[in-house]
Write a sequence for this structure.
């Protein structure tokens, strides 16, 4: 009995190809759209989170000047190397302190030149910023103290000045300083805001201060806390220390600011969280639209199918036999559409993710929900109108127009 | 068979059958106390103007519809209060239908249409095929087995419908305006086919029609008016 029902259902599906294809298409779109949207959203979220992590999450940066909209800082005293030393010595939860100064400059190698940011920094800078070397080494003792000029390149600078040539040991001119290339950092790529994080040249802070700045000022002091949890405390202590060192009277506003990567990262996380929620909402809408599509095609075929049910009943089918056939048909179409939709949705999000440089992160629960929802809608709207028709007196089903 | 029944006695006996639609002022009595007995092997034409209750009567006889009141003895068994499911089994085992609008499954070959009642009887595929091919040949449609209804003329479609009705070798063939959609020469062909089936295979046939020349093929004519039987004439088939 079941075997012949299965055969009959398959035959009906093949016989009514257009209707079958349309039904399946509705389910394919419903399932595929949801899976694709959510998978892409998840990938985008992960990419942003990973980008933020690359900037160094438990890092704080002190810069002179009060924080203002637009970031302008006017008239505040510069930070000094002594400030950095004081932070290192007086704050217990600080792991590493890296004072640095930077300036946009032209660097020249042979007949190539490139305009980039030249940063004067200590070796601690690499730790705090989570910069790793791809080739070469960091500064040695002599270089750190401002002896033999040396520099470490970001991959972008290396690419533009050296191309395929070996950069290590080459003599690079940074402004008026001739310095030897001793290292190249690993590429970090663009950050969340689309800025190239690999476009820089690092020279020792002492060299930068003596030969470029002509003072002991530093532009910024980056520091890392011993742990994520210590950041709020460090931030507080840091502000107190800086106010004391800069002799600010009680009640006067800060003339420096502390930037917190964690804050930025939290903000970004909430943004991506909102993004994911939005995508979820879009997915829910497309699921509903897909469901309505499935519903429509199922209901539209009810008139024709009601007569078919009438005919089958008239020539001796029992109601439950007709219903079983319709149920099998609906299940097969929904299953088929769901599987195609799943494959297309995953393939589509994989391709789009590749194109947009997002990681491919499947959320299994969304795949299951999308599949289950479409399946239930498809089966319900294939089955319940049929059940209503099969419960009529056969003559009423036959007369249905 | 769960319906029991006997081989002796009349095939059909209606006693005081009413079919009422609506209620109160809008009440319509499609059947208003019908008594009718049909013996095995009869060829009965049911006539009457539109709305006289002749089609309703046929639907009740065919177990496609249930009377509001009254007794319907089919093969000696009263079907009053029988479930839809039991009625389906009676249709499956004893009845064949031919409709004015053919009611073939669309996009389905003649052969598959004729096989369908056998599917519900649980016959194996090879036997279904054999019987269906024979039934189509009996109505003169050899070579058209794989045509769909859309590829057949009205007369041919009605022959497929007759083959579908006859393939199970029913006790009773019910035809509701079987020639209503056909031109006059096809009409005669179909009626001659029905008469042959009645005479050679001893199948009881009830034909509903409003045309006198169609009714003339039958051996008995029952005329309805306003839900009641107005005339019941027996005469040799024309």
């Amino acid at each position: 009995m079941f075997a012949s029902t299965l055969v009959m259902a398959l035959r009906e599906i093949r016989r009514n190809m257009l209707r079958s294809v349309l039904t399946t298409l509705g389910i394919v779109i419903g399932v595929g759209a949801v899976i694709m949207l959510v998978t892409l959203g998840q990938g985008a979220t992960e990419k942003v989170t990973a980008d933020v992590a690359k900037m160094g999450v438990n890092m704080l940066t002190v810069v002179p000047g009060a924080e203002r909209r637009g970031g302008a800082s006017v008239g505040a005293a510069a930070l000094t190397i002594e400030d950095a030393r004081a932070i290192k010595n007086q704050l217990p939860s600080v792991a590493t302190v890296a004072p640095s100064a930077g300036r946009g400059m032209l660097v020249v190698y042979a007949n190539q030149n490139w305009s980039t940011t030249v940063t004067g920094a200590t070796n601690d800078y690499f730790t705090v910023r989570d910069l790793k070397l791809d080739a070469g080494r960091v500064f040695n003792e002599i270089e750190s103290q401002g002896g033999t000029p040396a520099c470490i390149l970001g991959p972008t600078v290396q690419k533009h000045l050296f191309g395929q040539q070996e950069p290590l040991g080459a003599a690079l001119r940074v402004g008026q300083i001739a310095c030897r290339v001793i290292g190249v950092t690993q590429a970090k790529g663009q950050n969340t805001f689309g800025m190239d994080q690999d476009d820089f040249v690092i020279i020792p802070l002492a060299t930068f201060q003596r030969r470029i700045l002509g003072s002991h000022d530093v532009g910024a002091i980056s520091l890392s806390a011993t742990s994520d949890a210590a950041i709020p405390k460090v931030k507080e202590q840091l502000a107190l220390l800086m106010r004391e060192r800069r002799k600010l009277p009680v009640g006067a506003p800060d003339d420096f600011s502390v930037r917190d990567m964690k804050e930025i990262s939290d903000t970004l996380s909430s943004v991506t969280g909102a993004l994911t929620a939005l995508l979820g909402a879009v997915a829910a809408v497309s699921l509903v639209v897909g469901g309505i599509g499935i519903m429509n095609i199922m209901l539209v075929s009810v008139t024709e199918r009601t007569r078919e049910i009438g005919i089958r009943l008239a020539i001796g089918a029992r109601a439950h036999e007709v219903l079983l056939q319709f149920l099998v048909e609906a299940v097969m179409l929904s299953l088929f559409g769901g599987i195609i939709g799943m494959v297309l949705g995953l393939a589509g999000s994989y391709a789009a993710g590749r194109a947009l440089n997002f990681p491919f992160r499947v959320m299994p629960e969304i795949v299951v929900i999308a599949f289950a929802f479409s399946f239930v809608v498809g089966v319900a709207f294939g089955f319940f109108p049929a059940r209503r028709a099969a419960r009529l007196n056969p003559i009423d089903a036959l007369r249905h127009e | 068979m769960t319906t029991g029944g006997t081989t002796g006695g009349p095939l059909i006996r209606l006693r005081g059958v009413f079919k009422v639609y609506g209620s109160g002022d809008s009440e319509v009595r499609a059947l208003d106390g019908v008594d009718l007995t049909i013996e095995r092997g009869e060829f009965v034409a049911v006539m009457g103007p539109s709305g006289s209750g002749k089609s309703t009567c046929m639907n009740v006889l065919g177990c496609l519809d249930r009377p509001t009141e009254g007794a319907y003895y089919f093969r000696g068994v009263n079907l009053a209060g029988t479930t839809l499911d039991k009625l389906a089994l009676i249709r499956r085992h004893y009845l064949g239908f031919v409709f004015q609008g053919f009611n073939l499954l669309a996009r389905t070959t003649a052969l598959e249409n004729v096989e369908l009642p056998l599917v519900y009887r649980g016959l194996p595929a090879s036997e279904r095929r054999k019987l269906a091919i024979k039934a189509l040949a009996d109505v003169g449609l050899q070579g058209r087995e794989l045509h769909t209804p859309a590829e057949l003329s009205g007369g041919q479609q009605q022959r497929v419908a007759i083959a579908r009705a006859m393939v199970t070798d029913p006790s009773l063939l019910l035809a509701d305006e079987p020639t209503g959609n056909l031109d006059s020469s096809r009409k005669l062909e179909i009626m001659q086919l029905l008469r042959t089936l009645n005479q050679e295979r001893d199948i009881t046939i009830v034909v509903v029609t409003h045309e006198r020349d169609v009714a003339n093929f039958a051996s008995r004519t029952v005329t309805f008016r306003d839900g009641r039987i107005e005339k019941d004439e027996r005469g040799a088939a024309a």
User: Anything to note?
Assistant: Chain A touches chain B at residues 1, 4, 8, 11, 15-16, 304, 307-308, 310-321, 391, 393-396, 398 (CB under 8 Å). The mean pLDDT of chain A is 85.
